[in-house]
Design a protein that fits this description.
two-stranded antiparallel ribbon, alpha/beta, 6 helices, 226 residues, homodimer
Chain lengths: 226, 226
């Protein structure tokens, strides 16, 4: 027994957050290990990375199943076969069956590119820009059946800069996703996160912060680099 | 003519944000001046501060008026008599008539203790804690008829810390309100803010940031002091 928390990661595409988690898990003192990278698409670019990194992979093509429940049951079987204790969604683009969500209650994390509860759902960056917010961010949370809800483990704030497009804002936020997702997984794996109803209580002595400040360059007057 | 933007501030209580604006306006290079502090309550503690600071004050008791429209018209008359070009709401606890809001469209600012569009309305700190967010904040925005909507000029993010109560979170956010409200007013007074529909575009060359990072002490690993 390694003593490490066994994690399955679900992807649909390039899986950049999966890569960030894999990099974190490669560190000798990190308290989790990846036992499975599962994709619903055989052509997900993230699978190549996972194989090259020596990670176990599985493909469960959603089109092979008549409905969401049977697809999710097949995924669940793969995840349990791999011995996973926690599931991390990383750009997994299928809605999940409530039975699957309930089966992994408080044991399934997701990262969303907005400061929840603001901007749930898709197309968050464009909507944030249209709303004219000056601060955007991302959220790691336990998954509940309602989309993009669930106890929040960590969040990061980034500035919206003059001239930002959906792409530049997405890139700035993604950089923070890659920081807080491994940070949140570490906190969970170390047993420093307790779920109480709709809230995740993070151990006050946790060494890492739930707020990160990006290096924003031109905002040097008021924003200091991490 | 001073060349300074003439500002009326509306308060209902202690007016701590009014005090922050007054402190800013006292600086020799600040581009705005306070020409009126108006309260709907004769016993507002902020009035004493204003008088001691040598500011013009007015009391328009809302109870003296049969309806919101006539009350707002009386306020409007006082504000115009004082020569104000911009209105700043600072803990003003009366809903405003749409005609008054329209008359001061893009010339009336408010500060709200949340990262809008999240947590509009009252009781924001308790609701933010109940939602389990890890990042809270405040927003300075132009006022529209719908409560706590309107083009966002500046926002500040603060961490929610373990053990926070509504009071401790409110105090941490208020500290940032006192920073970004004068900052936002400066940007507006300097002509660096353009309203386009529902968005406020801040001049890219503006020296101050729309994101501020508080000194959070125990989060020193990832949050650097301003």
């Amino acid at each position: 027994m390694s003593g490490l928390l066994k994690v399955a990661i679900l992807i649909s595409g390039r899986g950049s957050n999966m890569r960030a988690l894999a990099r974190a898990c490669a560190a000798p003192d990190y308290p989790a290990e990846i036992v499975l990278v599962l994709s619903n698409r055989a052509d997900a670019a993230g699978l190549d990375f996972a194989r090259e990194a020596g990670l176990a992979t599985a493909i469960v093509p959603h089109r092979d199943f008549p409905d969401r429940a049977s697809f999710d049951a097949a995924m669940d079987a793969e995840i349990r076969k791999a011995g996973a204790e926690l599931v991390c969604l990383a750009g997994f683009m299928r809605l999940l069956d409530p039975a699957f969500v309930d089966a992994w209650r408080d044991r399934m994390l997701n990262v969303h590119p907005a400061l929840l509860p603001a901007f749930k759902g898709l197309d968050t960056h464009r909507r944030a820009l249209a709303a004219g917010v000056k601060i955007a961010g991302c959220t790691v949370h336990f998954v509940r059946s309602d989309m993009d809800t669930g106890p929040i483990v960590a969040q990061a704030a980034v500035p919206v800069l003059p001239g930002d497009t959906g792409e530049t804002l997405a890139a700035r936020i993604l950089e923070q996703e890659h920081i807080i997702y491994p940070m949140a997984l570490r906190l969970v794996a170390e047993g420093r996160v307790t779920v109480e109803g709709d809230r995740a209580i993070v151990d006050a002595a946790a060494p890492d912060a739930v707020l990160r400040n990006p290096d924003t360059g031109q905002l040097a007057n008021s924003v200091a680099p991490v």
